[in-house]
Each structure stands twice: as C-alpha cells, then as structure tokens.
Specification:
Jelly Rolls; 11 helices; alpha+beta; Arc Repressor Mutant, subunit A; 320 residues; 2 domains; single chain
C-alpha cells in the first residue's frame, strides 16, 4: 500500500472499510506504483485484505492478511527494484519467475529475503505475512548484484531469532507502541537487516573487499540499475555517486577491471538473459534495451564473450 507520511505510527487499511465495488480498484491503485499488477479474478465480496504499516526513516514494516490473490511484478513498471524480508505466519505462497529454476515456495515460519529484479508472479492463499522493506538506496551500498532465486532463507543466520521476534512484536503490538518505542524497534530491525544482507552478499559473491571496495560496490550497484542508458560512462557515475573520477578508476583497478569493462560485461549478461527468456525479441531490440548504441557493436561484443552470434545463442539456448 502507499507509504504513510507519518513516521513510526501504525496505519491500518482494511477492505471492510471500502465499498465492495471499489475494493479491487483501491488495492490495484495502491500497488501499481510499485510495478505490481493485481489479477482481477475474484468477486468483490471475496476480497479480504488487511494491511498494517509502520514507516521509519530507513525502512517500512508491513503486516498483511489476505484471501486468495495473484499479483505480478514487472521490473519495467517499477521505478526501482526492491528487496524485502518476510515471515509467512499463515497460509501458502509460491513465486514463479521466467526461468524454471526461478521458482520458490515460501515455507511458514521461515525468515526469508526476497529480491524483485525480474518478472515474478506471486500466488497467495489466505496468507498472514509480515514484511520489512528497507530503503533500496541504502541496500544498494551494501548488497551488490542480483540473487539468482527470488528468495533466500535466512533460517541459519545467528540474527534470525532476533529479527523474527522484533517483527512479531510490531505485528502484535504495533498499535500500542508510542513513537519512541516503535522507532527503537524498527530502527533496530533495519540495522539487523543490513548486517544480514552483508553476510548474504559475501556468501553469494555479490560484494567485494578492499580499501576502496565501498566505491566499487556502490558504483557496480548503480551500473546494475542503469546499464540500459546508452550514454552511461565513468564521468556520469562519479558525478552521481559524488566520488572523484580518479577514486572511481582506482576502485575498479583494485578489483582488476575498469568501469567501461564492467558496464560492457553487465550489459552482455543482461542481453544473454533476454535472448534466453524472450526468444521473440528482435536482436536490435535486445541490443537497444541493454544499452548498446547499435546492433553491430552488440553482436561483435557478444561473439567475443560467448563465442557465437546472439541469434545462434538464442536458437540454441533459448527456453532452456
């Protein structure tokens, strides 16, 4: 639902307070700004949705209870990717991605981290779920790259019991907490979440170490989100991130690469995924969406990296 403007105060949205004929429209309107489409496949009186939200400086806490629903996340309709933590208290939820391997079933009682970075369809049945949604700009400075699955279990992390207990406390007692109490709990949850994300990033090889690694990780994360911009270059990145060009170059040299080499490599990785998962896209469209100025340059670079033309790769590996 839309983010409350009043911080550290519980806000409640209940469809029981919305006329039946307006329920679907109200829910869909509140979610479309996040790139989420809600399937209109239920009678209005069958829609059950109750959302409790507490917003903080760095993150939001949400508690959602609902009936059966199907939602789809489209990364092209969302201004930013998103990442969140969740615990499914009741019900059943499954997530399907474009690739067959990008499927997951969320287990009740487990703490998971989710990353929305591709097309995902969520099927939920009678769920009662709690979420922690950190500011993606803060996340990008810590968690660099993409998870290969839509969800990763955090059940073995030492901070897991504390995360769960604090999320349940906000879920059960949020309406009774004053602003100071809510801020202490929610800000504490955010700090624990960032520590857990750092460990996930290290485990998955998505974050680098070194004296200038903070610059490299921030820049690589920004490139991940903006690789499609054809004018993307080191000067633009240094200006946006407020690092000097020389510091940016040294940070990438420390990792054994350059800014432009990283941009090209990420673009080719994205292009390969498009070729595999969208076989009907024209090659020139794939090149354009991945930031290449023309199809010739794209094809030349693709052959150098993958040792075959894009069309051959698509024909041989598309849909596998």
């Amino acid at each position: 639902m839309s983010r409350p403007t009043e911080l550290y105060v519980q806000h409640l949205l209940d469809v029981d307070d919305i006329p039946a004929e307006n329920r679907y429209l109200e829910i869909a309107k509140n979610l479309e700004c996040y790139g989420i489409t809600v399937a209109d496949d239920r009678r209005p009186e069958e829609i059950v949705a109750r959302h409790k939200t507490i917003s903080g400086i760095n993150c939001d806490f949400c508690s959602a209870t609902g009936s059966r629903n199907i939602t789809t996340f489209d990364p092209h309709k969302s201004p930013k990717p998103s990442l969140y933590f969740s615990v499914l208290l009741e019900g059943d939820q499954s997530i399907r991605g474009v690739k067959k391997s990008a499927h997951a079933r969320v287990s009740q009682g487990t703490l998971n981290v989710h990353q929305r970075n591709d097309y995902y369809t969520y099927e939920s049945n009678d769920v009662n779920q709690v979420y922690l949604i950190p500011d993606i700009e803060i996340v990008n400075g810590i968690f660099n790259g993409r998870l290969t699955n839509p969800t990763v279990s955090l059940e073995n992390h030492p901070l897991m019991p504390f995360m769960k207990s604090h999320m349940l406390l906000l879920h059960q007692q949020g309406a009774l907490l004053n602003v100071k109490q809510a801020s202490v709990i929610l800000d504490g949850l955010h700090n624990m979440a960032m520590l857990m994300l750092t460990d996930v990033a290290k485990e998955k090889g998505l974050i680098s170490s070194g004296a200038l690694s903070h610059i490299y990780n921030a820049a690589r994360s920004w490139i991940e989100q903006n690789y499609h911009l054809q004018a993307l270059n080191p000067d633009q990145i240094s200006t946006v991130l407020r690092y000097s060009r020389s510091s940016l170059d040294r940070a990438f040299k420390e990792q054994g690469t350059t800014v432009m080499a990283t941009i090209k490599d990420l673009r080719l990785t994205k292009a390969k995924a498009l070729l595999e998962n969208h076989p009907h896209l024209r090659i020139d469209r794939v090149a354009w969406e991945c930031g290449f100025s023309n199809q010739f340059i794209f094809s030349k670079n693709f052959r150098e990296k993958y040792h075959m033309p894009p069309k051959v790769w698509r024909d041989n590996f598309g849909g596998t």
